[in-house]
Amino acid sequence: MRGKFGLRAITALVCLSLCSMGFAQAAHAGVIGTHAVAGSEQRTAQVARLQSLVAGEEVRAKLVDLGVDPEWAAQRVASLTDAELARLNAEIEQMPAGAGVVTIVGITFIVLLILELTGVIDIFKKI
């Protein structure tokens, strides 16, 4: 009697495992292209450049004057989309080198404009 129960249990276990084999998920791997790797490196460089600008003393002071937390602005820069990063970096590239206060105000305005357009802050009150 004991041998039959053990045999039935083993048979049921084998049947269950064979039935559940159909539910196994296969892992799929793909090749990462050069463009994806180059794009991620370019994005990292753009984010680092913008965060270094936001970390500057004059920009931090201007952000604080406008009521924006500089740490939060740095986090927001990190979460920009690729298109926003490219546009912002292109506008910074077009600014004259050594423009001083004008450059800082321009960068601050661009960052605030992006934050306003995304609905994160409401500096420009709508009447």
Helix fraction bin: 55-70%
How far apart lie the N and C ends?
A: 87 Å
Number of strands: 0
In the predicted model, the low-confidence regions spanning at least 5 consecutive residues are none
Average of the residue pLDDT scores: 76
Strand and helix order: HHHHHH
Major sheet, described briefly? none
Helix count equals 6
**Structural classification:** mainly alpha
How do the helices and strands line up, and which of them pair or pack?
Elements: H1 2-20, H2 34-54, H3 57-65, H4 70-78, H5 82-94, H6 101-117
Helix pairs in contact: 2-4, 2-5, 3-6
Brief overview, please?
With 127 residues, this protein is mainly α.
Task: Write up what this structure looks like.
There is one protein chain. This protein is mostly helical and 127 residues long. It has one domain (35-127). It has six helices and no strands. The chain has helices spanning 2-20, 34-54, 57-65, 70-78, 82-94, 101-117. α2 packs across α5 (82-94) and α3 crosses α6 (101-117). It is elongated. The protein starts with a helix and ends in a 10-residue tail after the last helix.
Features:
mainly alpha, 127 residues, single chain
